[in-house]
Inverse folding.
């Protein structure tokens, strides 16, 4: 049981105190959230029902898109509802739950991006053994390990704040719950706990990023001996992964790898990795990938033909 002290709920200050800005943000973020659900769901469905997208790369992509839906859904619905609410509150248990799943899906995304980089490394560096190494069983195990790692990471983060006493104040200058804002409200010394939290989250980010950096560096080095057409195709595929990695790890590094101090830009940076990045991922992967676009068209025409047949 969380040691709440006198605090049973927290109050968010939200994005802005201006009612006009809040109404504009409500329309904007409602549209963005619907686009996130639609875009990522389309990728999941396309990969699931297209036989031409049966390779490990698309298997991991479908799981990444599903995680993006879950990741954004931990914060966006609450943000959208609060934009039309005068009192933006969340219970203590709800705050802990939101923090837990926010870190679960964030860590799973990091692991999946790392796995996808390893997949591209094998496909380019060891093409003759790729099919044998990255079979369906191994792919399923890797995804399962990503989910397990995400839960273990989040449990470690939550354990640090689970028994903290919250005696007041209970106002969070943010639009969702996270471990660092909660530490600032605890009525006890949290310096050592803060170091552990930053070490846990920071080490996960740094190790994942280093693995990604090594993988893509090896890929670029190996491509020197390939033909121009082979290099173009490989670089086109890897470019999508690199863009997503930069979009995800860049903002995360700003939040979790700097000293734990209040920063007015934190909310804007958080919007980038909780809303903008999940929105951009489907466009990055689909617009840069001819196979995905062709499969989407085929599914669309198939659905239209079945609809016309049903009406006939």
């Amino acid at each position: 049981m969380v040691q709440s002290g006198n605090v049973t709920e927290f109050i968010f200050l939200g994005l802005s105190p201006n009612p006009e800005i809040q109404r504009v943000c409500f329309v904007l973020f409602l549209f963005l959230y619907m686009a996130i659900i639609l875009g990522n769901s389309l990728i999941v469905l396309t990969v699931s029902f297209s036989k031409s997208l049966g390779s490990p790369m698309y298997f991991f992509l479908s799981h990444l898109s599903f995680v993006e839906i879950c990741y954004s859904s931990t914060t966006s619905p609450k943000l959208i509802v609060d934009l039309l609410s005068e009192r933006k509150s969340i219970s203590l248990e709800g705050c802990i739950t939101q923090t837990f799943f926010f870190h679960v899906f964030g860590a799973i995304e990091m692991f999946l991006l790392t796995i996808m980089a390893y997949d591209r490394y094998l496909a380019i560096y060891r093409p003759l053994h790729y099919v044998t190494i990255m079979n369906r069983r191994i792919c399923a195990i890797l995804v399962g390990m990503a989910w397990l790692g995400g839960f273990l990471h989040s449990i470690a983060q939550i354990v640090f704040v689970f028994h903290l006493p919250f005696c007041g104040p209970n106002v969070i200058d943010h639009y969702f719950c996270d471990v660092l804002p909660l530490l600032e409200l605890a009525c006890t010394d949290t310096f050592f706990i803060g170091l552990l939290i930053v070490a846990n989250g920071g080490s996960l980010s740094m190790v994942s990023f280093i693995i990604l950096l090594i993988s893509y560096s090896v890929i670029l080095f190996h491509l020197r001996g390939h033909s121009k057409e082979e290099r173009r195709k490989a670089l086109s595929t890897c470019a999508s992964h690199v863009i997503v990695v930069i979009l995800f790890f860049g903002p995360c590094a700003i939040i979790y790898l700097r000293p734990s101090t209040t920063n007015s830009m934190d909310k804007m940076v958080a919007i980038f990795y909780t809303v903008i990045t999940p929105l951009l991922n489907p466009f990055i992967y689909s617009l840069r990938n001819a196979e995905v676009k062709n499969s989407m068209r085929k599914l669309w025409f198939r659905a239209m033909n079945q609809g016309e047949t049903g009406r006939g």
